């Protein structure tokens, strides 16, 4: 059984945000080995601004699951941790975004899920690039051909992302 590296963005802005991220990391470890975990960052909401600040983190998971199975696992973890989808981009107990899966470039749409790799807004979001650069600064965006550090340096997004104490 071959293993692959996936990068997953974690976010929470309801309840005990730190505990939700910890529970999500534990749940992800059932689907592989967490190889690297960024620090936690407190971030201001993007797009829907009238909601609490987020805690965000990026993890590198070595997994045997294929991308679709991994996305399904992430969605199961979200449901288990009480994620409700009432307002798009609104408040949530937990959010797990599959950002990268090796250097795969794909788009899959089924009745119950949509998967686009790399994540289509990864290069536009400071709350993703800051923690991603912490654990994989020299990694390359498989479509844009730039390092994550280079993408962060060129980023126009000025949303606040600060280390969480």
Would you spell out the secondary-structure blueprint of this structure?
Blueprint: E1 4-12, H1 17-28, E2 32-37, E3 41-43, E4 54-63, H2 67-80, E5 95-101, E6 106-109, E7 114-117, H3 126-135, H4 148-154, E8 161-163
Antiparallel strand pairs: 1-4, 1-5, 2-4, 3-4, 3-8, 6-7
Helix pairs in contact: 3-4
What is this structure, in a nutshell?
By secondary structure, the chain is α+β, with helices and mostly antiparallel strands. 26% of the residues lie in helices and 28% in strands. The protein has a single domain, classed as 2-Layer Sandwich (Alpha-Beta Plaits), CATH 3.30.70.
Tell me about this structure:
There is one protein chain. The protein is an alpha+beta fold. It has a single domain (4-163), classed as 7,8-Dihydro-6-hydroxymethylpterin-pyrophosphokinase HPPK (Alpha-Beta Plaits, 2-Layer Sandwich), CATH 3.30.70. Helices cover 26% and strands 28% of the residues. The chain is built from 4 helices and 8 strands, in the order βαβββαβββααβ. It has helices spanning 17-28, 67-80, 126-135, 148-154; strands spanning 4-12, 32-37, 41-43, 54-63, 95-101, 106-109, 114-117, 161-163. The strands form 2 sheets. Strands 1, 2, 3, 4, 5 and 8 form a 6-stranded antiparallel β-sheet that branches. It has a two-stranded antiparallel ribbon with strand order 6-7. A hairpin with a 4-residue loop joins strand 6 (106-109) and strand 7 (114-117). Helix 3 packs antiparallel against helix 4 (148-154). The protein is globular, with a radius of gyration of 15 Å. The N and C termini lie far apart (39 Å).
